[in-house]
Design a protein that fits this description.
9 helices; 2 domains; globular; alpha/beta; binds nicotinamide-adenine-dinucleotide
Length: 296
């Protein structure tokens, strides 16, 4: 069990949407919360609301793509709240532009925020959690990471979000002796600021702010036409419940289980069927005859 009450928690991207919901719920459940965001005014509003509701919270500026910025945010969080044992690496951004039309800077931005942002945040807070012999990192991936065919026109985003899942699952093995756990949260449609503010705060080195994308999903895309967008305050308790129980994944749309089966049971199983058929006809590859597991 990972206790929430009484712990210090950090939420990146805590100024809006899912992060705002997580920060508020952490405050309600008795955690001391650092609301970290590249949009500091939004983080300040969220922290103020938590304090008004009787909780303890600070707002801290950070750009998750910058290690120096993340490390400064970590130091400020620890100074304000004490050792941090709950980390929600949640900041993210996306693009609705086809890959071949994206600029190099845009591709770099999406991968840096979503993948390296989680890596940077994790690495900044890990030593403290290991020292405390306990903690939990919950990274916000996406259904577009678990099932990269789920959302069209999201190539760098899907790659980064799938990378988060690999990172969290592999890290879980490394951290087991230290009592630190990991969770990949895969939202499947949460009403948030992503549509309105996506790109508006893109840092200068990734091309600076870009016009707000007007189209979320194409009119011909039937995948999402009936998708319900849940409220951040309704999904946050589901996420914290999974963290409390040290679950490796947390989902928020029960009906999407069907898509998981379609992707991994139908597609991946069919590819294994192909391999079985190939080997039945052609035989199984021989092991390296020298017995060495590396070939020079
Ligand atoms: N809303 C959904 O349906 C959905 C679905 C799947 C995954 N997600 C993921 O959920 C997470 C939260 O997104 P959201 O939907 O709440 O959107 P949002 O735009 O409301 O919130 C994202 C927050 O991240 C912050 N941020 C962006 N870049 C940053 C940076 N470099 N450094 C620090 N903060 C930064 C933004 O300022 C913003 O406050 C993201 O990782 C997103 O990819 C959302």
């Amino acid at each position: 069990m990972t206790e929430i009450a009484g712990k210090a928690a950090v939420v990146t991207g805590g100024g809006s949407g899912i992060g705002m919901g997580l920060a508020g719920e952490l405050g309600r459940q008795g955690a001391r919360v650092a609301v970290a965001d590249i949009q500091i005014a939004k983080a300040e509003a969220v922290a103020a609301a938590i304090r008004e509701a009787g909780g303890q919270a600070v707002a801290l500026p950070c750009d998750v793509t910058e290690r120096t910025s993340i490390n400064a945010m970590r130091d400020a969080a620890i100074a304000a709240l004490g050792p941090v044992q709950l980390v929600f690496a949640n900041a993210g951004a996306t693009s609705f532009t086809p890959l071949i039309e994206m600029s190099d800077a845009d591709v770099d931005w999406i991968v840096q925020v979503n993948l390296m942002g989680v890596m940077n945040t994790t690495r900044a807070f890990l030593p403290g959690m290991i020292e405390a012999a306990g903690g939990h990192i919950c990274a916000t991936s996406s259904m577009a990471g678990l099932l990269p065919g789920w959302m069209p026109v999201h190539v760098p985003y899907s790659a980064a979000k799938m990378g988060i899942i690999g990172m969290m699952m592999n890290l879980a093995i490394e951290l087991k002796p230290h009592g630190v756990f990991t969770t990949s949260y895969c939202p499947g449609g949460v009403a948030s600021g992503m549509k309105a503010n996506n790109g508006a705060y893109r840092p200068e080195r990734f091309g600076g702010p870009e016009p707000v994308a007007e189209v979320q999903f194409s009119g011909t895309d039937k995948t999402h036409s009936s998708m319900a967008f849940y409220r951040p305050e309704d999904v946050a308790p589901i996420v914290l419940n999974a963290v409390r129980n040290n679950r490796p994944f947390v989902f928020d749309h029960a009906e999407q289980r069907r898509l998981f089966a379609e992707t991994y049971v139908s597609v991946v199983e069919a590819c294994y069927d192909d391999l079985d058929a190939w080997q039945a006809e052609n035989g199984v590859p021989q092991g390296n005859p020298t017995g060495a597991d590396l070939i020079d």
